[in-house]
């Protein structure tokens, strides 16, 4: 790793980047019982650390390469980092982005002076097109993470932290996508202070580094298995060079859920009044999970979380706010079957008592019973939650839907849509690319053979809209129907047996 120490020390990134502050987080520190600090990479000019690596790579181009220009594939922070770096150096930049990239990101890249090429519906399509332009027009391809100069540029964050904090330090928590950030930080930190743990944090539905370290080799995740909520780190495979470094420098990887990420976004806001993007909040989410798993601490060593970015679309805040209470275990989403008799509704409310009710949906089921979907506030203590649910189960049939994606994303907004007589209805959850014609493409593939019996769409300001659809599939047509779904190319999950659907929509 010694060669990286020199590269990091020579990485003059400060024509585009600032030395970001290392701020105390007194609220988190008091709540978690450990000194917590936040490395504020969300305060960079493009609101993320990516400008460091991009600039360090581009500034090393020779005269001929500078004349031809650079190309990159990105729908987010790397695109803005490359655009800013190229602009400062007077170099032409072309950024290939998927057609479903939110307009706010496209506009931001254009304002920085880069040419935007919209191509395909996902990163793989954009990456392929960028490589084609590289070959056709002679551009230099700027990789978002698997490049020694990019890694060294990100490593300047580790150099700054070691200079900014010299006291007892237990661990640094770093968001992981392709691995460029943690490779750079890890190389420098482990060289200077090998006793400090370098801990990666990934969304549990896009945990490529955790899978690679466990397998002892790079693992390619299936595209259909990758959740796009933390889209800045939703990478199918970590880099070859970043993995080589991680095997030497990363102590462990913590994985976190969507709800835990949302809770971390709230924590960062309460500490800084800044709104992190989901990938940017991974460090804080992982720090909290690490302390939760470690139990009571006696050390006074500090913990640092890298807040890696704040390119959050405003529309996504609604979704984050909905999920935050569940992420902190401060809201239970429960499906409860109660008798359809006079006074039963009042008796149910009496059992809830003085707890705050965040949501309440009541739906008549049949002559003997009714279903209630209730959001009920908890103290955040797991024992309190369990005791309350068990008390309800002493009187009623209760299904805890707090971790049920279909219930949280869709069903809680659809209660009242029950039907009967659709014995062949099957329910699927889809991710639709946010681009004109996406729905029509889906309908064309279904054709006239399969009737849509239910459809609920939600957009959270990301590149993908979330859809819950009921589709009538005649007996014996299941294989043909699934072939049709695979043809359209949208990610999907069947939810026909989901208890939330069975209770409130079927």
Can you describe this structure in just a few lines?
The protein is of the alpha/beta class and 506 residues long. It folds into four domains: 219 residues, Rossmann fold (3-Layer(aba) Sandwich), CATH 3.40.50; 92 residues, 3-Layer(aba) Sandwich (Rossmann fold); 75 residues, Biosynthetic Threonine Deaminase, Domain 3 (Biosynthetic Threonine Deaminase, domain 3, 3-Layer(aba) Sandwich); 90 residues, 3-Layer(aba) Sandwich (Biosynthetic Threonine Deaminase, domain 3), CATH 3.40.1020.10. It contains 20 helices and 18 strands.
Features:
alpha/beta, six-stranded mixed sheet, Rossmann fold, about 500 residues, Biosynthetic Threonine Deaminase, domain 3, 20 helices
Could you explain how this protein is built, in words?
This protein has helices spanning 2-9, 26-32, 50-58, 63-68, 77-89, 103-111, 123-137, 148-164, 180-192, 208-215, 240-249, 258-272, 282-294, 316-327, 344-352, 382-393, 405-409, 438-446, 478-488, 499-504; strands at 22-24, 36-40, 70-73, 93-97, 115-118, 140-141, 169-175, 197-203, 252-256, 302-307, 331-339, 357-364, 369-377, 397-400, 425-433, 451-459, 464-472, 491-494. By secondary structure, the chain is of the alpha/beta class. It folds into four domains: 2-43 and 148-324, 3-Layer(aba) Sandwich (Rossmann fold); 50-141, Rossmann fold, CATH 3.40.50.1100; 329-403, Biosynthetic Threonine Deaminase, domain 3 (3-Layer(aba) Sandwich), CATH 3.40.1020.10; 415-504, Biosynthetic Threonine Deaminase, Domain 3 (Biosynthetic Threonine Deaminase, domain 3, 3-Layer(aba) Sandwich), CATH 3.40.1020. It has a six-stranded mixed β-sheet with strand order 1-2-10-7-8-9, with helices on both faces. 47% of the residues are buried. The model has no long low-confidence stretch (mean pLDDT 89).
